[in-house]
Design brief:
Elements (H helix, E strand, L loop, with lengths): L1 H13 L14 H4 L4 H16 L2 H24 L11 E5 L8 H16 L7 E4 L5 H10 L2 E2 L14 E5 L4 H10 L9 E6 L1 H6 L3 H7 L1 H7 L3 E4 L7 H4 L2 E5 L2 H5 L30
Parallel strand pairs: 1-2, 1-4, 2-3, 4-5
Antiparallel strand pairs: 5-7, 6-7
Length: 283
């Protein structure tokens, strides 16, 4: 009881401020003792059932379905005839955190499972990664049917088909890396992000530093569409400041062509607190 209470107190102190990526958490319980896979799976499924009865879930479902339908409609307008009407949706989830010991992370995982079911995205077509996952948690995710990535991509995932990116309270660098990797008029419209509002990120950061360190988010703010998602007061620390973010082709085409020319990979040499765990490099 005390551990859970402490989690929520910490979350409340951060309310209204930019949260650090849950990827910075170190799994304590799971690393010290064997995780009960069956019990943890049941707890997650119970949480799914709990969320399904929440009124705000219907609003999330409508917003997600509307964004995906619009994305697929725009894709079909430009796709070859033999691909029309094909969903072929994928999902990528980064930064869930240690869901076996963190209440917030468990609720966020349950919401991911609800979204996958609502949009008929096969569980195997959802890839998940967080450096904080213990071996037991990776087994739980596989038991649920999800695909666990072996490599830390730092968010640099290329969307080759319509893809839902589920990034709850992740570090700004992860969002920035994802945008950089897909920085083209062809790739960005394939993406739907459910995660922290870009406008909210900017509001909580010094403008000069934000433009310097997170240039892709800075540029995306002017061309993306954000739909804020509702959050009940009792789950404010779990789902606050969450939006559905899309990239309409028409808006992207209004930017000068120079916007897309050889975008440099982000380096973050000025960031003392990067909010994500970077992959280990061979020395």
């Amino acid at each position: 009881m005390s551990d859970t209470g402490e989690e929520w107190q910490v979350a409340r102190r951060r309310k209204g401020a930019a949260r650090k990526s849950k990827s910075l958490q170190v799994p304590s319980i799971c690393s010290q003792e064997q995780l009960d896979i069956g019990k943890t799976v049941k707890r997650i499924r119970d949480t799914v059932s709990e969320l399904r009865c929440e009124e705000f879930w219907n609003e999330w479902k409508k917003a997600g379905s509307a964004a995906l339908s619009k994305l697929l409609e725009n894709r079909d307008n430009e796709a070859p005839a033999d691909q029309l009407g094909s969903k072929e949706l994928e999902c990528v989830c980064y930064g869930l955190g240690s869901f076996s010991s963190c209440v917030s992370a468990r609720f966020q995982l349950a919401m991911l499972l609800l979204l996958l079911d609502a949009e008929q995205i096969p569980l195997k077509d959802c890839s998940v990664y967080d450096p904080a996952f213990s071996s037991g948690e990776r087994s739980v995710l596989r038991e649920l049917g999800l695909t666990v990535l072996a490599e830390n991509e730092e968010g640099k995932c290329l969307a080759t088909k319509p893809t839902l990116f589920y990034l709850m309270h992740c570090g700004k660098a992860l969002y920035n890396n994802l945008l950089w990797k897909n920085w083209s008029v062809q790739r960005l419209p394939l993406m739907i992000i459910i995660g922290n509002s870009f406008n909210g990120m900017m509001d909580r950061t010094l403008e000069r530093e934000f433009k310097r360190d997170y240039s892709y988010i800075t540029q995306a703010v002017s061309v993306c569409e954000e739909r804020q998602l509702p959050c009940p007061s009792r789950l404010i620390d779990v789902f606050s400041d969450t939006a559905v973010i899309t990239f309409p082709t028409g808006s992207l085409n209004r930017l000068p062509q120079s916007t897309w020319a050889e975008p440099p990979e982000p380096q973050y040499q000025h960031c003392s607190d990067l909010e994500i765990i970077q992959r280990e490099t061979q020395s």
